[in-house]
Each structure stands twice: as structure tokens, then as C-alpha cells.
Amino acid sequence: MERVVITGIGAVNAIGNTKEEYWDALATGKNGIGPITYFDASEHRTQIAGEVKNFQAEAYMDRRSASRLPLFIQYALAASIMAHEDADLELDKVDPYRAGVQIGSGIGGIGVLEDNAKTLAEKGVKRVSPFLVPYMIINMAAGRVSIHFSLKGPNSSSVTACASANHSIGDSFRIIQRGEADVMFTGGTESAITPLAFAGFCSMRAMSERNDAPERASRPFTKDRDGFVMGDGAGVLILESLSHAKKRGAHIYAEIIGYGMTSDAHDMVSPPENGEGAAKAMEFALQDAELPLDAVDYINAHGTSTPIGDVAETNAIKTLFGEHAYKIPVSSTKSMIGHLLGAAGAVELIACLGGMEKGYLPPTINYDMPDEACDLDYVPNKSRDAKIEVALSNAFGFGGHNTSIAIRKFSG
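and the corresponding C-alpha cells:
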């Protein structure tokens, strides 16, 4: 099978609109959570989020597209353009049927649906936008990227809630492994900070209600955590077969060496407390990579800051790694950017790549009240100098979807 490497990175989130901004912000423990400005959230239980700031859509697309396209497509397109430039990839030299796109999202264009439902109720059926369907459906992010770059190979979208990006990356990895493509643009995108989406999560009591202290609201693994904080943005990676990347002399960030996925088959929204499915996903990723447990230098946790989820993931790590679990640094970058739902896996894998490239462990900020049920090394509050050779990046989604991706620093 083909070996698969990462050669391009594009990122948009609450603490950075480029790869460099994002990596620098992670290293300094920057917090991107604040009061919602996208809409009036005064009647919502949760009034805080990790909004994207100072995003300039016209830097990546024409003015008409910038004014019409929903944000989840804008973010995906911007991140893809950044990844393409970062990879220094000359697509005119690539067979277009050997280059594809797989970009996932959990919710897609829910804001478009909200706006048009309101239009239908207030102004009637004839005023509903003809763009409702193409701007609402999740696969249109991948479709728009393929149109922009004239990529005619495999094109798809994974929709598995908060595991969507990891499934998209893992499936793209498999496509190249099998020899079905040489290049894949892959990752996830999300823009779910909308009145309806927030109302739904608030009704579930799933999100933090620390509205008076937004910068301290995302608190993974702490004793007094009270729910996740939503974030917006996108992460896109360019994957290539090793032979293709070497032939063109590409800079290689890392090699994807393993991919594991399982289902909890337990509950629609809650994982089992023992984290069995998550443990198996990590185990399968390492089996795929043909690596022993003690080869892992860092785990970027799903770590959402929910009471049940953080315990389940901690238990999963301890179940798989045993006593060695206490020697593995584990952190949640959601403490800084919030939870990007379907885009989470992509921006968090990019965080792992930043740690590999720059030589640091991203911290879990706001870690000031240890929980006896969460007793691992969570890289509290400050980044730590470290050499990362192998990392795991976890993403789990409603419905019981568990994914883990293993990467290794490329050395030839």
C-alpha cells in the first residue's frame, strides 16, 4: 500500500486565521472564547463561544461569493486555499482525476436553513431563496473546493457529528493508501454559532453557562467543568502519497500511519463511562500503525469539558495504556478554541502537527481544579517543550462514533 504524508495545512479558528497564527497562539495558551457577537444571545442559557475574528473572505474569493456563501463553505474554501499554497502544489501537473476532496461537517449550513424558515413563515413560499438547498447541504463545502481547484477525483463528505473531520481525514488516508488518488484535500468545517443550533444545545444543557467568565468556560478535565463551549472555523490538510510528494520535492510535515474507528453502540449522546469504544479506536489506530503502546509521545484528546465525556476519555486512555498512561502527555486544545464540532478533528490534528514542527506540547488551559476521576498529565496551563515523534488525535461524536488518527514525524 502507498504511504501517506501531510504536505499542506490551512486553518481558521478563534485564535488564528492562518496556520502560523494558530500555532503561535497554541504555544502561548491564548484564549479565543468570548461573548457572542453574531446574534443576540441574551435569552440563551449560554451566551459565549469561540467565534472566528477578523476573517477576510475577500482575500480568498470574489466579492459576490464572499457576500453569498455561508460561512461553513467560506471557511473550508479559505483553509483549502491556504493549504494549497502551503503545499506549493502545482495542480496543473496533477491528473485531475487523481486529486480529490473529502471535507466533513457536523451541521453544515444550519444558518441558511434558519434564515429561510423565517422567510417562509413571514413572507411566504415564493420568497424562499433558490440557494437554500445548495447552501445548506453539508457536501457543498467539498463540492465548492473541488470546483475552485478543478479536482475531479474522489469527492465526499463525512457527517458523523464531532467525528466528521477525523472520518474525512481517515477515509482520505485510505483512498490514497489504496492507490485511488495521489492528492486529497481533507478536513472539516463548521459555522454552527447560530440561534437555533445554540437553542438546541442549550436545551440539552450540554454547553457551559459561565457567561460571566467566558475566558475560563472551556475547562477540560477540571473538577468544576460544566459543559463544552462551541467554536467556529475549519481545518484542511493536503494529503499525498509519499511517492508523489517526494517526486515533486514537497515539504512533508508528518506521515499518517494509523486510523481507527469504532461505535459505542450505547447511547445517542453519552459515551459509556469506561470509554471502551474510544479505547478500541486508539488501539486499532496503533495496530494499523504497527506501533507498540509506549511509542506514543502525545495525545490530543477530544476533551470537550463535559462532565461525562472527559471521564470516559480518561478511562479509555488508562484502559488501553495501563500504567503507561500516566507517562503520556494528554491535552485538549478545545480549552483555547472551543469545540468546532465537525471541524474539531482537523484543527486538532493541525495542533499536533504544530507541536511536532515547533517542538512543544499544546497546553490545556484553565486547569486549576484537578478532578480525581481525571488524573493524567493534561499539560496544565502552559505549553511544554518536547520532542513529538508519534501523536494520536482523538475525535468522538454523538451517535457513538469514535475515531483516532496516528501520525509520525517524517524522517525519510
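(Above: one complete record from the training split.) The chain has a mean pLDDT of 97.
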